[in-house]
Amino acid sequence: MGGQKGIACFYEAFSTLLPVTLVSTKNNEYPKELAAEFLPILSNHFSRYFNVFLLIRLSKIIKKRKSTHIILEHPYLGWMGIILQLFLKVKVIIHSHNIESLRFKSTGKWWWRILWFYEKTVHRNADINFFITEEDRVFAINNFKLDQTKCFTITYGFDLNTPPSNEERKMANNKLKTLHHIPSDIVVLLFNGTLDYKPNLDAVNHIINNINPILQTHTDFKYNIIICGKGLPASYNNLQGHKNIIYAGFVDDISLYFKGADIFINPVIDGGGIKTKLVEALGNNLFTISTIEGAIGVPEEITNKRMHIVKSNDWNLFANAIVHASYGDSSIDQAFFDYFYWDKIAKKAANAIGNK
């Protein structure tokens, strides 16, 4: 999942700048090239969020390593961070990947208001707050009443500081078309995501029921839509039977698809936070068509017209944008990599910690 990849990539870069100990769940594997110390001691069960005995283990780890800061991914263990902050005099950083309560509100969870007050309390007690998008940072400052000097935008990133070459993309395009038996004159559209996550599954429904039927009316536009991702419900087993749609499932190398596709489509209209797949697509120099909600966290001015934003639920405009995007010839701007390259993001986070 994008959030999991974001955590892994962030600490891969961050641990080269500062000494880091990662406390993780037992089912995670240690990447040998990582500079951080790795302690997989957390339970895989949801009960870890309420385990008071974990405080004792974390206290020993912090004291032994003379740690000065704790970074909590998401606010859920915030209560534990506040206790450690109080008794061990360490600084607490909340690394927020969404405004979590609003994300659950958008997916229809009745208890989102309870999470809202908890999330607000945790952020107000933190010494530093990292937010995944500038929109989330501004929202939290205004609605949680946070000190803006303690709030920073530490976004999701991209592995490379330049896009793949035209030759790389052409080779990937040929390989992709050979793999899926796609004729050479076909425009390849791509959507990917974890498909048991409601916002992504809703996007698949928009592709099937709205976007694909409209595209079929453009008889001169030859295309295939490739959908990648695990967790597709069994009720969607006939997805392959829809004209122009290829369901690739969980693929071994998603980079082949990002390099080889012509256009990335992002018809996501809820879920909150940054859509990591959009960052990946733009970093690979793909044309992208996105809803307004799907483009949150990606400044349009740094994409050099590689991202076209469409009002949500206007599927006619969305489909027309796809048809016209296939004829563009711009290239992603260096400003995109200045903003989204992981090394730069890690340095920004390290500087924020060093100044507090």
Task: Describe the structure in your own words.
The chain has 356 residues and is of the alpha/beta class. It folds into 2 domains: 2-157 and 341-354, Glycogen Phosphorylase B (Rossmann fold, 3-Layer(aba) Sandwich), CATH 3.40.50.2000; 166-335, Glycogen Phosphorylase B (Rossmann fold, 3-Layer(aba) Sandwich), CATH 3.40.50. 41% of the residues lie in helices and 17% in strands. It has helices at residues 2-14, 54-65, 78-88, 100-106, 112-125, 134-143, 166-179, 198-216, 254-260, 276-283, 315-325, 334-340, 342-354; strands spanning 21-25, 37-42, 69-73, 91-96, 128-131, 151-153, 187-192, 223-228, 245-249, 263-266, 287-291, 307-310. It has a 6-stranded parallel sheet with strand order 9-8-7-10-11-12, sandwiched between helices. Helix 6 links the parallel strand 5 and strand 6 (151-153). Helix 1 crosses helix 13 (342-354), helix 7 packs across helix 9 and helix 8 packs across helix 11. The two termini are 31 Å apart. The model has no long low-confidence stretch (mean pLDDT 92).
